[in-house]
Amino acid sequence: MEHSDERSTKRQKMDINEGLITIDLKWNNSLYQLLVDPDDDVLILKHKIQMETEVLPERQKILNLKGKNNVKIDDNSKISDLLIKQGKPLQMVGSREEDIRSVNEKPEETDEIVNDFEDPEQQDNDSFENRDVYLAKIKRRVDEYKVEVFNPPRPGKKLLVLDIDYTLFDHRSSAETGAELMRPYLHEFLTSAYEHYDIVIWSATSMKWIIEKMKLLGVHTNENYKMTFYLDYNAMISIHHPSKGVVNVKPLGVIWQKFPEFYSSKNTIMFDDIRRNFLMNPKSGLRIKAFSQCHLNRSTDTELLKLAKYLKKIAENCDDFNQLNHRKWEGYNP
Hints:
single chain; alpha/beta; Ubiquitin-like (UB roll); Rossmann fold; 2 domains; five-stranded parallel sheet; four-stranded mixed sheet; 11 helices; 11 strands; 16% strand
């Protein structure tokens, strides 16, 4: 009976017709499990691999990647066309940019990492919010993605969704302690926000690293505020942008549909240093100034103090956040 249950679990795992599927990948003696949509293509798979390994798609060489019925596989091939053998992970060869730079002894260029695809004032004319293909992906995340709630949502509170890297934490600079990499006034900011907002962390990395970073920063079990839950890259979706190519975004609809009695576009705001993460919910996103080169900016960065005041003002004076223009947050006067 035990073997029968095991086979049933594996069949369900590999069944491309039921929600997300799991692809095992081996790289540098580590095994990764990637959740993908069967309707996604190989290029999106490579972007998910990048999130786990930091190896850029153009540097990835995936071995034993074959198509069903000997179909030729390229970046545009659908995941559902792949021949995925049970118990045989895909093998990937490739090097991270950090390792390549280290070998070549070239200085790291962080500007390319923190810069967005677009100018801060440039309006994106492409609407993605109501496209059926992306709404279907959101529904799959709602159905398949498991949220571990650390502290239950509080009735009447608004929702603040925060990125980590370059928003709360400079993850590229070198330092001896996590406190040196932490954005100034982080704990004061979170303490102030917690009065009116439930706080959620959503990062384009794995859950393991989110928890480690939150512990490192002293956020995970802070006595002055509480985290509601964390979301990792598996809750994100990939979309095809006509000029930007494949991009991964954070659709707040995942949260709104999982917790409809607490959160909606009327009471949610998200901070991120990358504007493209707001493509599925542009009115709810506030692009925060990126925090990098902490050794140079630690003594002058007051972004979180200013944003704490903004959060307090809109919480106390605005019943519908859809009416706000977060691009002009610094000049907000209720």
